[in-house]
Each structure stands twice: as structure tokens, then as C-alpha cells.
Amino acid sequence: MTAPKGSGRLRLGVAGLGTVGGGLLKLIERQNELRLPGKLEVVAVSARNKNRNRGVDISKFRWVDDPVELALADDIDVVVELVGGSDGPAKRTVEAALRSGKAVVSANKALIAEHGIEIAALAEKHNAHLLFEAAVAGAIPIVRAVKNSLSGVIVSRVSGILNGTCNYILSEMLRTGAAYETVLAEAQRLGYAESDPFLDVSGGDAAHKVLILASIAFGAQPDFSQVQVEGIDRIEAMDIALANKFDYRIKLVAEAFRSNGGVKCRVAPVLVQKEHPLAQINGPLNAVLVEGEPVGRLTFTGPGAGAGPTAAAVMGDLARLFEGPATPPLGKPAAELLPLITAENAALANAVRQIGIERARYLDLLLDSAATSRAAQEKGPMMVADHYEPPVATIAQHAKDVGLMLETAGARPLAALPGIAARMDQLIAAGHGAVVGEKAVAAQFDEIGEGELDVIERVRPAGVAGDLDALPGGQVRVDIAARGLDLGLDGAGLF
């Protein structure tokens, strides 16, 4: 839908009057100062608490208790959904609005990331606009850029800093040397972090955002279960200091890239060389890098959260409603979006395809042979069914493997191995041998950008293949100085 013919006016129903909703109403009051193609008129509003002081007069708007009523009202053209949450009132309101042929403008990254394919299909069926620029990176117009402006680019990677809360915490830990808990408390006091910061510091917020970008950039169905997620809540001041000593910065980086014929999506704290563009992003700012042919690398930076930046992104979407008919919300029609095949799944599929047999048949042969194993018996059926869970292992199991490495190496082990073995022995002696790593993924770690080996790396045991675990504390808290970190040095240079 577009503005009613000849009216140059859009009548809005605003659902959700929190920080962003209040900011939007204030901005609409100043619309004469903006460059809008038409007039915006707020008709009705809805929120959980009618009497809350929001710093803006809402008495001139019709109040409704149930936001779904906005979607059904004849005098409303556009529903602005700022409720949040992947289900509940937000989802019901958006679905009802789209079924009514109304345009929807949303800042709800969880809803798009977890239900994007179904609500995109609903929007297309009813020829309704579904716009969500504000769901990713605040004021940075990255959704429109990837969806429209860069539609002529073959994107190979989208990466960046997508959570201002985490970036502020990590930046302040570097600047002040303070502990994570201290900086988090200050971030909450300043309003950079919620009273319950779990979604931010766990990496979930950034994961929602990068999945949306991945869906648009790679023409894939958003599937949140396929995103590898790790947060910053176990990063310590010592980690920050040691990284800085070697001219690295620790950043929570979200990325999606092509690999092995599939797409890999992940969020994790990583080491970024101080010269890299992402290392220069401090405080609550966001940054997004888009890489592809024939443009190379493009960098987008700006404020990624807050009332003003997010409300400005919502206003941008409202302005676009005057421009023309609706287009597929995720770039391609929902029916043409392919399943999000992870890099690991794609590698397995390619290997089996090269063998020329079906995976189920291959598993049958494996289980009947002398090469069978407990891992094949337990995990094989899951792999055949394309159901992958992160493998788990205890410290004691890892210690056994390190011992075998030392035994095999004889008199010439990798320089880091004796230190790693000693630390593992300490942990086992302290009673931590049975601690299980929850999200360890044994896979090659692809660095960010061109010249990848010198750009960004995970902390890992020196000389061992990358991405075996995340930054210190990702699975088991290990003294960063004792475990031997590959910070762009060889083992001999560190020990």
C-alpha cells in the first residue's frame, strides 16, 4: 500500500510507547523540519501503561488497549510496531495489519529474525509494505543498502559490530581497566544497558540482526537455530589488557559469509587488529562491513540504538511508503528464498555427494564396518536428518588428546603444548575435569575481510586449528596467560 491517492497523507497507529515510541512521536511533531514526501498523522496509540509519563502528550490520540485494534481500524493506513518480542502482541498485531493490507513499519529484530519468512510471505500475499530498517543498526541505513542499493553486488560477507551495549562495555574495559561487572553497572546507569542485559551481553541481539542481514544478502530463509552465538559476559579485564599488549582489540563481532557452498552465521568476541576498521568503533556506536564483487569492502558506521537514532530509522521507512508499491520485504519473494544451509552442513553434503551415495546409506555402511564409533552411532542419525548440535567434550577428554599430541611429537612438541597440558592438569586436579563445553565448534575460523590472516582471529591455543573454542571463558574459564594464545605470533615467539 502507498499513501491514499491524492492525499499525500499517511494515518498512523503506533503500537508501543517505550523509548523508541516516545522518540518517534516527538520526531513526528517536528516533521515540518524534515524532508518528508507527505504528511504523517498519528491517529491512535497503544501500550501496556496508559498513565506512564513519556515526555510527550498522548491525550490527543485515540487510545486502544489491544494493539491488534490498530490493525483493524478503518482510519489507519500504517501500523508502526514498536512493542518488541518475537511472539505475543507484536506478532499478532503485525499479522493482522498485513492481512488487512495495511503497511507495517517495525523495529522488531526478534520478530523478523524468528518469523521473517512467514510474515514476509503474508505481506506479499496481501500486497502490503513490511519495512524494518530500524531493526538493524539503528540510524545506519544498512537494510535498505543491502536490499536495494547493493542489489547489483554479489555479497560474500556481511560483518560488524551490531550491539552498542556490548561495544560500550568492551571499550570502557579497555579505557579504564575496570572489571566487566563494574562497567556493566555503569552502562545500566547511563542507559546503554537494560536492567536485564542478558539479550545484549549474551550475543542474542546481535545474532538477530546479523541473521536479518544474511537473509537479505544471501537470499536465504532466516533460521535463528543456525546462528552460532556467544556473548561477552565471561570477558575479564585481563583478557582486554593482554589483547591490547599485542595491539589487538576485543570486539563482539557478528558475521555472515559464504563458505563451502553454504552460509555461516555467528556472533562471538574476537580479536581485531587495532588498525582494522572495526577496532576504531568505540562506545555505543555500530559498524557494518559489506564485502562483495565488484565493489570490494564498504563500511557503514553510526549510532546503533537509542530513541533518536531508532526513531529516525522508523521515519525513514515511513517516508518510503510514499514512494511506490510494496516490494518483497526480504529482497526476493519469500517462495524463492532458499533454506539457510550452514557451512558445516554444506561441507558434509558436498563430501557425500562426491562419494556418490545417499547419506543414510553411507551411515548404514559406516555403522556396519570396523570404522564405526560411538560418535557415529550417536551423531550419525542427526547428521543424516540435517540436525546439528554443537559437540561437547570435558576437560579430561581434551587433556587426553593433548597427551596424545605430546606423545606423538616426542622430543619436538609444539611450543604451546606443555603449557596447555600443565594447565589442564591443574584444572583436573582442582575438580574441573568433568566441566562440559556447551558450544565448542570444531571448524575452520574464517577471518574478516581481505588479508584475513592479519585482520581478525579468535583466541585459541597456539598451533592448534582455530575455532575450537571462543575467547577465554567461552566454555571453561582458563587463565589467558597460561593457555598460550595465537595473537598473530608463532608459539616460539610467545613461550
User: Mean pLDDT across all residues, rounded?
Assistant: 80
Q: What distance lies between the first and last C-alpha atoms, to the nearest angstrom?
A: 65 Å
The CATH homologous superfamily of the largest domain corresponds to Dihydrodipicolinate Reductase, domain 2
Shape by Cα distribution: globular
Helix content: 25-40%
Kindly state the number of beta strands: 13
Main structural class: alpha/beta
CA-based gyration radius: 25 Å
- What CATH architecture label of the largest domain applies? 2-Layer Sandwich
Strand residues, percent:
15-25%
Tell me about the largest β-sheet. 7 strands, mixed
CATH domain fold name of the largest domain: Dihydrodipicolinate Reductase, domain 2
Q: Can you tell me the CATH class of the largest domain?
A: Alpha Beta
Please give the count of helices.
18
Number of structurally distinct domains: 4
**Can you tell me the residue ranges where pLDDT is under 50 for at least 5 consecutive residues?**
437-495
Task: Walk me through what this model shows.
It is a single chain. This protein is α/β, with parallel strands linked by helices and 495 residues long. The protein has 4 domains: 9-138 and 312-336, NAD(P)-binding Rossmann-like Domain (Rossmann fold); 145-303, Dihydrodipicolinate Reductase, domain 2; 343-384, no CATH class; 395-436 and 458-494, no CATH class. It is 38% helix and 16% strand. The protein has helices spanning 19-29, 68-72, 89-99, 109-125, 142-149, 164-176, 180-190, 198-201, 204-218, 237-245, 307-320, 343-355, 359-367, 374-384, 395-409, 417-429, 480-483, 491-494, and strands spanning 9-15, 39-46, 62-63, 78-81, 103-106, 130-131, 154-161, 227-229, 248-259, 262-273, 285-293, 296-303, 456-457. The strands form 2 sheets. Strands 7, 8, 9, 10, 11, 12 and 13 form a 7-stranded mixed beta sheet that branches. Helix 15 packs antiparallel against helix 16 (417-429). The radius of gyration is 25 Å and the shape is globular. The termini are far apart. The model is unreliable at 437-495 (pLDDT under 50).
